[in-house]
Each structure stands twice: as structure tokens, then as C-alpha cells.
Amino acid sequence: MKQVMLLIAFFTLTTVSTTFAQTATPMATKTQINQQKKIKQGIKSGELTKQEVKRLEKQQRNIARVKRDSKSDGVVTKKERAIIKKKQKKAAKNIYKQKHDGQKRGN
User: Fold this and answer.
1) Residue of 59, 24, 45 lying closest to 100 (CA atoms)
2) Domain boundaries of the chain, sorted by first residue
3) In angstroms, what CA-CA distances link 41 with 26, 52, 56?
């Protein structure tokens, strides 16, 4: 009887821990949403040219792909998180640089 109870407890614990495995990337998602807002604001204000928008959006798609690939095996490792964070940091610098480079969108 004790073995059965231990076995049930083990499977329950395993299931719960697997369910809450490190697959969520809430900070990366929040960062990506903020970056998308900054790009849209740059489009609206005319701070970003069409070519700049294309490059920035391509970079955002790349980050989304890396996130999706990292989650595909069910676990996002520290190394994968670091890669995502590094790519997002570079994207943030690019967004800032492009919005403040003095080029304006033509009509």
C-alpha cells in the first residue's frame, strides 16, 4: 500500500513539474511586445523609413523564431534564454538607432 501511494505521489509530482517546466518566457514576450510598439510608433511618427521598418520587423521575426525553436523541446535552457535576451538587446539598440538617425519617412 505504501509503495502504491509513493508511486502515485511520484507521478503526480512529475506531472506537475513537467506542466510547469521552464517553457514560459514572459520577460522575452513582454520585451518583444514593447519593441513592436516602438516600431509602430516610429512608423506613425515618420521616424522610420520603409526600409528601416522592413529590417526591424525581420529582426523581430527572427527573435520569434528563436523563441519558438527554444520552446519546441519543452524546456527553455539558460543558454537559450541568454541568446534570446542578447538578440532582443541588439534589436532594442537598432530600434533606437533607426528612430533617432534623422531620416524621415517620405510620402
Assistant:
1) 45
2) 24-99
3) 23, 13, 13
- Per-residue CA distances from 106 to 7, 37, 40, 98, 103 (Å): 68, 21, 16, 15, 9
Angle subtended by helix axes 50-71 and 78-99, to nearest 10: 170
Q: Assess contact for 95 and 43: CB atoms under 8 A.
A: no
Nearest of 94, 101, 27, 25 to residue 54 by alpha carbon: 94
Per-residue pLDDT tens digits for 10-25:
666 665 555 455 678 8
- Nearest CA to 24 out of 75, 66, 59, 62 is that of 75
pTM of the model: 0.74
Task: Report the run of H or E that residue 46 belongs to, with start and end.
Answer: none
- pLDDT, one tens digit per residue, over 26-68 is 899 999 999 999 999 999 999 999 999 999 999 999 999 999 9
How many residues are recorded in the chain? 107
